Amino acid sequence: MIHVQSLSESQSEFLNLDARCEWSATNRSMLALKVFLLALSLYIDSAYPSSIQVPLDLHKHKPRTLHGRFLHITDIHPDPYYTPGTSQSKACHRKRPKKKSDKAGYYGTPYSECDAPFRLTNYTLDFIEENWASEIDFVIWTGDNARHDNDRKIPRTPSEIYTLNRSVAERMERIFLHRGIPVIPSLVGRQVIMTFGVCWHAFFSTSKPLNWSTQLMRVWIICCSVYTMLTVITTGPNSITNEYASYVLFCMSLGVQLTLPSIWSHFIPFPYLQVFQRGAYYTVEVVPDELAVISLNTMYFYDSNKGTWMYAMSCSPADTCTVVSGCVYTARDDPGNLQLDWLEVQLKMYRERGIQVWLSGHVPPSPGNYFSECYVRYAELALRFQDTILGHLYGHMNADHFFFLEAVDLVPKTKFKFTKGVGLYETLLNDFSSLPKSSNIVMDEYAAVNVAPSVVPNPYLPSFRIFTYNISKNAQHELQGALKKKKRKHGHDRGDKGNKTTHCQIEEHQKTWICHLNDPWHSDPDSPSRSNQRWTPLGFAQYYLPSIKDADKSHPPHFELEYVTYSVANLHPRKGLEDDFQYPIPLKHLPTPLQNATTSKSKYAPYGLADLTIESWVRLARRLGDSSHGKLRKRFRKYMFGGGKEGE
């Protein structure tokens, strides 16, 4: 196997060649080519030795001491063109505005459409490294790591996207992987840009003369990549998935393989590299044989991609592309359907092995975000494997909120009751207020989705979350206590329901997923998602940067605790249990009032949740749905929009 860890200018010429490769299918020619390439592999291996570590092969390491915490970070959006003092109307790139309030801030500009300066990105990651890197077990990183393409005078390029993603990935690697902490990133829309035809042309075009060693590398790359793409390019691998995974170009008939370094090569476990290249989704056992995180490619589900060619994700070398159909039942080779088929297999295997799972991705699964058929399939899997899935963690929306996947979404509708012109906050309150009464609710029919706020102050305040989870091997944990275009809505349609049997007798409905999802559900009130035990999520602390607007070179901003989901009592040990108590949030990371064990009530703990089980989320939703809880609603809205206004 050839490993090329870094390429010189001459070596990297293989990325810009204008050539075609024709090779004979006869045994003699193939044998000659195989001998030639194997000789070449020996030459390159001796000339450019390297030792790329097998990514996250945790089974080969000693068991780690768990802290019972993990980081969820999302939507970093670093912008290399951000310039302090420039105009917000120019994406904070140029022009000095007359009004001080319109000027770009030194560390970033909250409540604007400007992305994050490198100064903010570095400050955030430096803070996390200094304060949390030694306190967590793994990192769920749900994108988005390139600036928005919102400046026509400085269009975003593929090279810039890859460079920004690579820069953030290298920081993540240095901060976490070097400490043995797994990092699970998710691919998002802004991390890809080109059609396959463009990539192919860029890959094989050059105007520079090539030396003999580069010519040999060209033959190797072209032959291997042509064979690979012709056989498996239907949904990948392609230039995009290869850019994020390690470049593993298989020449199956030659029996040889070339591996090149790439953006996420150290994050993706070796057994899943080929899966990632096909669709940019994969899974990591963050605690081997016990706890896993699945990273999904939500590009295939996101209805904003409707009718697109999904960039390069479904194209052949001849630019014969399969349009993303949105998981329709009749398109079984649709990339979204293939991913959900894969997800179903993973969940079945993890359930059989007794492994608990977090699902993660960029765009959250809601009726307003996903193609309707993708949403139905995802929701059905979430409920069918409720006893295996601990929770669903996403980003993209930049607004702090939660919502439910419900069984009500899996039955036919006869009437619709959506209200036009209602924002996210009102939609959620309407949703929560229509939940069944406590005596009538069936917890088997719910799954909670958590959407985290972003690091980029576009349009709110920089934030990140530290989750805690139960690592006790006992049945119960000691923390258990008191408990401008029309947009589709993100809430649930609670209109009148039709009869599924009658509905599915109609021919046009027979080709929808609702009429074919009839597998029994694995719901268990004693599972970790429903009852506090080992692996149950217990809560999170959210940190934010309220002082960013006024910060400057002499007065840097400071991350502060915004709120915790726990009850105040659960932040400290009960009397007599001090010696064995695992603090959910180390006292040094709490404000002074919460460090005092005698504190019984705090503005930092408005929710007072015993844990993050489904029942706890439903109880909180019911309280928010009750108009008499005006103070709680006010807090919820403040956290959702970082103290600003919706869509500011």
From TrEMBL:
Listed GO CC annotations: extracellular space; fungal-type vacuole
Species classification: Eukaryota, Fungi, Dikarya, Basidiomycota, Agaricomycotina
Protein name (record): Predicted protein
Stretches with biased composition (Basic residues): 91-101
InterPro entries documented for this protein: Metallo-depent_PP-like
This protein's UniProt keywords: Glycoprotein, Hydrolase
Region feature (Disordered): 82-104
Natural source organism: Laccaria bicolor (strain S238N-H82 / ATCC MYA-4686) (Bicoloured deceiver)
UniProt record, GO biological process: polyphosphate catabolic process
Domain of life: Eukaryota
Entry keyword annotation includes rRNA-binding: no
